[in-house]
Amino acid sequence: MQIYLPIAELPVNVFLILGMGIAVGFISGMFGVGGGFLMTPLLIFVGIPPAVSVVTVTAHMAASSASGAIAYWRKGTIDFGLAGVLLLGGMVGTGLGVWVFTILRRFGQLELAIGISYVLLLGIIGSLMIGESVRAILRSRRKTAQPPRLAAKPWWFAELPLRMHFRRSNLDVSALPVLAIGGAIGFLGAVMGISGGFMLVPALIYLLRVPTGVVLGTSLVLTLATMLAAVLMHALSSLSLDVVLALILMVGGVMGAQFGARAGQAMRGEQLRLLLGLLVLAVGLRFLVDLALPPEEMFTVLQTERVR
Protein backbone atom coordinates (compact mmCIF):
# COMPACT_ATOMS: atom_id res chain seq x y z
CA MET A 1 0.00 0.00 0.00
CA GLN A 2 1.63 3.21 -1.21
CA ILE A 3 1.14 6.66 0.29
CA TYR A 4 2.55 9.93 -0.98
CA LEU A 5 4.60 12.01 1.45
CA PRO A 6 3.93 15.68 0.60
CA ILE A 7 7.12 17.16 2.07
CA ALA A 8 9.50 14.33 1.14
CA GLU A 9 7.86 14.38 -2.32
CA LEU A 10 7.94 10.63 -2.93
CA PRO A 11 5.64 7.63 -2.43
CA VAL A 12 6.45 5.06 0.27
CA ASN A 13 5.01 1.78 1.43
CA VAL A 14 2.89 2.39 4.54
CA PHE A 15 3.64 -1.04 5.97
CA LEU A 16 7.39 -0.54 5.51
CA ILE A 17 7.35 2.77 7.41
CA LEU A 18 5.02 1.31 10.05
CA GLY A 19 7.31 -1.70 10.43
CA MET A 20 10.31 0.58 10.87
CA GLY A 21 8.44 2.46 13.57
CA ILE A 22 7.57 -0.79 15.33
CA ALA A 23 11.15 -2.09 15.09
CA VAL A 24 12.72 1.10 16.42
CA GLY A 25 10.02 1.35 19.08
CA PHE A 26 10.83 -2.21 20.15
CA ILE A 27 14.53 -1.35 20.40
CA SER A 28 13.72 1.85 22.28
CA GLY A 29 11.60 0.01 24.81
CA MET A 30 14.13 -2.78 25.15
CA PHE A 31 17.21 -0.62 25.69
CA GLY A 32 15.63 2.49 27.21
CA VAL A 33 16.89 4.92 24.53
CA GLY A 34 15.06 7.36 22.30
CA GLY A 35 15.76 5.56 19.05
CA GLY A 36 16.40 8.64 16.93
CA PHE A 37 19.95 7.50 16.17
CA LEU A 38 18.36 4.48 14.46
CA MET A 39 15.25 6.00 12.92
CA THR A 40 17.04 8.81 11.09
CA PRO A 41 19.52 6.48 9.32
CA LEU A 42 16.75 4.03 8.42
CA LEU A 43 14.69 6.77 6.79
CA ILE A 44 17.73 7.94 4.85
CA PHE A 45 18.51 4.37 3.76
CA VAL A 46 15.00 3.93 2.25
CA GLY A 47 15.27 7.14 0.25
CA ILE A 48 13.79 9.85 2.47
CA PRO A 49 15.83 13.07 2.03
CA PRO A 50 18.19 13.68 4.98
CA ALA A 51 16.63 17.06 5.80
CA VAL A 52 13.12 15.60 6.00
CA SER A 53 14.39 12.57 7.96
CA VAL A 54 16.09 14.68 10.62
CA VAL A 55 13.17 17.08 11.14
CA THR A 56 10.47 14.38 11.11
CA VAL A 57 12.34 12.22 13.62
CA THR A 58 12.55 15.17 16.02
CA ALA A 59 8.74 15.27 16.04
CA HIS A 60 8.62 11.51 16.58
CA MET A 61 11.05 11.76 19.50
CA ALA A 62 9.10 14.61 21.10
CA ALA A 63 5.88 12.58 21.07
CA SER A 64 7.47 9.38 22.36
CA SER A 65 9.29 11.11 25.22
CA ALA A 66 6.18 12.97 26.43
CA SER A 67 4.43 9.88 27.82
CA GLY A 68 7.60 8.68 29.52
CA ALA A 69 8.21 12.04 31.16
CA ILE A 70 4.67 12.08 32.54
CA ALA A 71 5.13 8.60 34.01
CA TYR A 72 8.38 9.56 35.77
CA TRP A 73 6.81 12.81 37.01
CA ARG A 74 4.04 10.84 38.69
CA LYS A 75 6.69 8.71 40.41
CA GLY A 76 8.52 11.84 41.63
CA THR A 77 11.85 10.84 40.07
CA ILE A 78 12.55 14.03 38.08
CA ASP A 79 15.02 16.66 39.22
CA PHE A 80 13.34 19.74 37.75
CA GLY A 81 16.17 22.03 38.88
CA LEU A 82 18.76 19.96 37.03
CA ALA A 83 16.42 19.59 34.07
CA GLY A 84 15.95 23.37 33.96
CA VAL A 85 19.69 24.08 33.76
CA LEU A 86 20.14 21.34 31.16
CA LEU A 87 17.21 22.79 29.24
CA LEU A 88 18.74 26.27 29.25
CA GLY A 89 21.89 24.92 27.64
CA GLY A 90 19.81 22.66 25.39
CA MET A 91 17.81 25.55 23.96
CA VAL A 92 21.00 27.44 23.08
CA GLY A 93 22.46 24.31 21.50
CA THR A 94 19.24 23.61 19.60
CA GLY A 95 19.15 27.12 18.17
CA LEU A 96 22.78 26.84 17.10
CA GLY A 97 22.12 23.39 15.62
CA VAL A 98 19.15 24.63 13.55
CA TRP A 99 21.30 27.51 12.27
CA VAL A 100 24.10 25.12 11.25
CA PHE A 101 21.52 22.74 9.73
CA THR A 102 20.09 25.57 7.56
CA ILE A 103 23.54 26.69 6.40
CA LEU A 104 24.65 23.17 5.48
CA ARG A 105 21.44 22.58 3.57
CA ARG A 106 21.79 25.89 1.72
CA PHE A 107 25.27 24.97 0.50
CA GLY A 108 24.35 21.36 -0.34
CA GLN A 109 26.61 19.79 2.30
CA LEU A 110 23.93 18.54 4.71
CA GLU A 111 23.97 14.88 3.65
CA LEU A 112 27.78 14.67 3.86
CA ALA A 113 27.85 16.37 7.27
CA ILE A 114 25.17 14.06 8.67
CA GLY A 115 26.96 10.97 7.35
CA ILE A 116 30.34 11.94 8.80
CA SER A 117 28.75 12.90 12.13
CA TYR A 118 27.02 9.52 12.41
CA VAL A 119 30.19 7.61 11.54
CA LEU A 120 32.25 9.40 14.20
CA LEU A 121 29.63 9.57 16.94
CA LEU A 122 28.16 6.09 16.62
CA GLY A 123 31.56 4.51 15.98
CA ILE A 124 33.07 5.94 19.15
CA ILE A 125 30.05 5.35 21.39
CA GLY A 126 29.41 1.85 20.01
CA SER A 127 33.04 0.80 20.53
CA LEU A 128 33.09 2.12 24.11
CA MET A 129 29.82 0.37 24.96
CA ILE A 130 31.00 -2.94 23.50
CA GLY A 131 34.29 -2.77 25.40
CA GLU A 132 32.60 -1.98 28.72
CA SER A 133 29.96 -4.69 28.22
CA VAL A 134 32.50 -7.37 27.32
CA ARG A 135 34.53 -6.57 30.42
CA ALA A 136 31.38 -6.72 32.57
CA ILE A 137 30.40 -10.11 31.10
CA LEU A 138 33.90 -11.50 31.66
CA ARG A 139 33.84 -10.28 35.27
CA SER A 140 30.49 -11.94 35.87
CA ARG A 141 31.74 -15.25 34.45
CA ARG A 142 34.83 -15.10 36.62
CA LYS A 143 32.60 -14.09 39.54
CA THR A 144 34.84 -11.13 40.36
CA ALA A 145 33.55 -8.08 42.11
CA GLN A 146 32.58 -4.93 40.22
CA PRO A 147 35.23 -2.21 40.56
CA PRO A 148 34.13 0.40 43.09
CA ARG A 149 32.61 3.58 41.70
CA LEU A 150 34.48 6.81 42.04
CA ALA A 151 33.56 9.28 44.71
CA ALA A 152 30.18 10.90 44.36
CA LYS A 153 31.76 14.34 43.92
CA PRO A 154 32.98 14.93 40.33
CA TRP A 155 36.53 16.15 40.96
CA TRP A 156 37.44 17.32 37.46
CA PHE A 157 35.24 20.44 37.59
CA ALA A 158 34.97 20.83 41.35
CA GLU A 159 36.67 24.25 41.32
CA LEU A 160 34.49 25.84 38.62
CA PRO A 161 32.34 28.86 39.59
CA LEU A 162 28.52 29.21 39.59
CA ARG A 163 28.00 26.30 41.94
CA MET A 164 24.42 25.11 42.43
CA HIS A 165 22.72 22.56 44.66
CA PHE A 166 20.21 20.19 43.05
CA ARG A 167 18.13 18.85 45.90
CA ARG A 168 16.44 15.89 44.19
CA SER A 169 19.77 14.55 42.90
CA ASN A 170 21.63 15.51 46.10
CA LEU A 171 24.23 17.12 43.84
CA ASP A 172 26.41 20.18 44.51
CA VAL A 173 28.16 21.16 41.30
CA SER A 174 28.95 24.08 38.99
CA ALA A 175 26.26 25.00 36.48
CA LEU A 176 28.84 25.35 33.67
CA PRO A 177 29.32 21.63 32.87
CA VAL A 178 25.56 21.09 33.17
CA LEU A 179 24.96 23.86 30.63
CA ALA A 180 27.66 22.41 28.36
CA ILE A 181 26.11 18.92 28.41
CA GLY A 182 22.64 20.30 27.69
CA GLY A 183 24.00 22.46 24.85
CA ALA A 184 25.80 19.52 23.24
CA ILE A 185 22.68 17.33 23.37
CA GLY A 186 20.49 20.10 21.91
CA PHE A 187 22.97 20.79 19.11
CA LEU A 188 23.28 17.13 18.09
CA GLY A 189 19.52 16.66 18.24
CA ALA A 190 18.89 19.57 15.88
CA VAL A 191 21.60 18.65 13.36
CA MET A 192 21.38 14.85 13.39
CA GLY A 193 17.78 14.15 14.41
CA ILE A 194 18.65 12.20 17.56
CA SER A 195 17.15 12.55 21.01
CA GLY A 196 20.58 12.27 22.64
CA GLY A 197 19.34 10.03 25.44
CA PHE A 198 21.96 7.37 24.72
CA MET A 199 24.60 10.08 25.34
CA LEU A 200 22.87 12.14 28.04
CA VAL A 201 22.18 9.26 30.42
CA PRO A 202 25.84 8.09 30.60
CA ALA A 203 27.00 11.71 30.88
CA LEU A 204 24.76 12.41 33.86
CA ILE A 205 25.72 9.15 35.59
CA TYR A 206 29.47 9.04 34.96
CA LEU A 207 30.35 12.74 34.73
CA LEU A 208 27.94 14.44 37.14
CA ARG A 209 27.33 11.38 39.38
CA VAL A 210 23.55 11.82 39.25
CA PRO A 211 21.72 8.84 40.85
CA THR A 212 20.47 6.40 38.24
CA GLY A 213 16.90 6.55 39.55
CA VAL A 214 16.72 10.27 38.76
CA VAL A 215 18.55 10.22 35.43
CA LEU A 216 15.92 8.68 33.16
CA GLY A 217 13.05 11.01 34.01
CA THR A 218 15.29 14.10 33.95
CA SER A 219 16.70 13.00 30.59
CA LEU A 220 13.22 12.62 29.13
CA VAL A 221 12.25 16.14 30.21
CA LEU A 222 15.25 17.56 28.37
CA THR A 223 14.55 15.38 25.34
CA LEU A 224 10.92 16.48 25.20
CA ALA A 225 11.73 20.19 25.45
CA THR A 226 14.65 20.22 23.01
CA MET A 227 12.83 18.10 20.43
CA LEU A 228 9.76 20.36 20.59
CA ALA A 229 11.99 23.41 20.15
CA ALA A 230 13.81 21.76 17.25
CA VAL A 231 10.51 20.88 15.54
CA LEU A 232 9.24 24.46 15.78
CA MET A 233 12.53 26.00 14.64
CA HIS A 234 12.90 23.57 11.74
CA ALA A 235 9.26 24.04 10.70
CA LEU A 236 9.79 27.80 10.49
CA SER A 237 13.28 27.83 8.95
CA SER A 238 13.57 24.79 6.67
CA LEU A 239 9.91 23.71 6.14
CA SER A 240 11.01 20.06 6.22
CA LEU A 241 8.51 18.52 8.66
CA ASP A 242 6.47 15.75 6.99
CA VAL A 243 3.44 15.32 9.27
CA VAL A 244 2.16 12.23 7.42
CA LEU A 245 5.47 10.42 7.88
CA ALA A 246 5.70 11.50 11.53
CA LEU A 247 2.22 10.16 12.35
CA ILE A 248 2.95 6.74 10.84
CA LEU A 249 6.21 6.49 12.78
CA MET A 250 4.51 7.52 16.04
CA VAL A 251 1.89 4.78 15.72
CA GLY A 252 4.51 2.12 15.06
CA GLY A 253 6.80 3.39 17.81
CA VAL A 254 4.10 3.21 20.49
CA MET A 255 3.21 -0.35 19.47
CA GLY A 256 6.79 -1.62 19.37
CA ALA A 257 7.84 -0.01 22.65
CA GLN A 258 5.36 -2.06 24.64
CA PHE A 259 6.84 -5.36 23.46
CA GLY A 260 10.42 -4.10 23.70
CA ALA A 261 10.03 -3.16 27.36
CA ARG A 262 8.87 -6.68 28.18
CA ALA A 263 11.77 -8.25 26.25
CA GLY A 264 14.31 -6.02 27.98
CA GLN A 265 13.20 -7.14 31.42
CA ALA A 266 14.21 -10.71 30.59
CA MET A 267 17.85 -9.86 29.84
CA ARG A 268 20.78 -8.85 32.04
CA GLY A 269 22.10 -5.29 31.96
CA GLU A 270 25.51 -6.08 30.46
CA GLN A 271 23.89 -8.19 27.74
CA LEU A 272 21.56 -5.33 26.82
CA ARG A 273 24.46 -2.87 26.69
CA LEU A 274 26.47 -5.25 24.49
CA LEU A 275 23.60 -5.66 22.01
CA LEU A 276 22.97 -1.92 21.95
CA GLY A 277 26.68 -1.26 21.40
CA LEU A 278 26.76 -3.69 18.48
CA LEU A 279 23.65 -2.04 17.03
CA VAL A 280 25.10 1.46 17.37
CA LEU A 281 28.40 0.39 15.80
CA ALA A 282 26.60 -1.37 12.92
CA VAL A 283 24.69 1.79 12.01
CA GLY A 284 27.93 3.79 12.08
CA LEU A 285 29.65 1.25 9.81
CA ARG A 286 26.67 1.38 7.42
CA PHE A 287 27.13 5.13 7.08
CA LEU A 288 30.87 4.63 6.56
CA VAL A 289 30.18 2.23 3.69
CA ASP A 290 27.81 4.73 2.07
CA LEU A 291 30.43 7.47 2.34
CA ALA A 292 33.17 5.23 0.89
CA LEU A 293 31.20 3.98 -2.12
CA PRO A 294 31.21 6.23 -5.21
CA PRO A 295 27.83 7.88 -5.93
CA GLU A 296 25.68 6.79 -8.87
CA GLU A 297 25.81 10.32 -10.29
CA MET A 298 29.15 12.07 -10.01
CA PHE A 299 27.69 15.52 -10.69
CA THR A 300 24.35 17.12 -9.86
CA VAL A 301 22.84 20.46 -10.73
CA LEU A 302 21.40 22.47 -7.83
CA GLN A 303 18.83 25.19 -8.35
CA THR A 304 19.38 28.28 -6.27
CA GLU A 305 17.15 31.25 -5.77
CA ARG A 306 18.26 34.53 -7.33
CA VAL A 307 18.99 37.19 -4.78
CA ARG A 308 17.00 40.30 -5.53
UniProtKB/TrEMBL annotation:
<feature type="transmembrane region" description="Helical">
    <location>
        <begin position="37"/>
        <end position="59"/>
    </location>
</feature>
<feature type="transmembrane region" description="Helical">
    <location>
        <begin position="243"/>
        <end position="260"/>
    </location>
</feature>
<dbReference type="InterPro" id="IPR051598">
    <property type="entry name" value="TSUP/Inactive_protease-like"/>
</dbReference>
<dbReference type="GO" id="GO:0005886">
    <property type="term" value="C:plasma membrane"/>
</dbReference>
<keyword id="KW-0812">Transmembrane</keyword>
<dbReference type="InterPro" id="IPR002781">
    <property type="entry name" value="TM_pro_TauE-like"/>
</dbReference>
<keyword id="KW-1133">Transmembrane helix</keyword>
<protein>
    <recommendedName>
        <fullName>Probable membrane transporter protein</fullName>
    </recommendedName>
</protein>
<keyword id="KW-0472">Membrane</keyword>
<feature type="transmembrane region" description="Helical">
    <location>
        <begin position="272"/>
        <end position="289"/>
    </location>
</feature>
<feature type="transmembrane region" description="Helical">
    <location>
        <begin position="80"/>
        <end position="104"/>
    </location>
</feature>
<feature type="transmembrane region" description="Helical">
    <location>
        <begin position="214"/>
        <end position="237"/>
    </location>
</feature>
<feature type="transmembrane region" description="Helical">
    <location>
        <begin position="116"/>
        <end position="138"/>
    </location>
</feature>
<feature type="transmembrane region" description="Helical">
    <location>
        <begin position="178"/>
        <end position="207"/>
    </location>
</feature>
<comment type="similarity">
    <text>Belongs to the 4-toluene sulfonate uptake permease (TSUP) (TC 2.A.102) family.</text>
</comment>
<feature type="transmembrane region" description="Helical">
    <location>
        <begin position="12"/>
        <end position="31"/>
    </location>
</feature>
<dbReference type="Pfam" id="PF01925">
    <property type="entry name" value="TauE"/>
</dbReference>
<keyword id="KW-1003">Cell membrane</keyword>
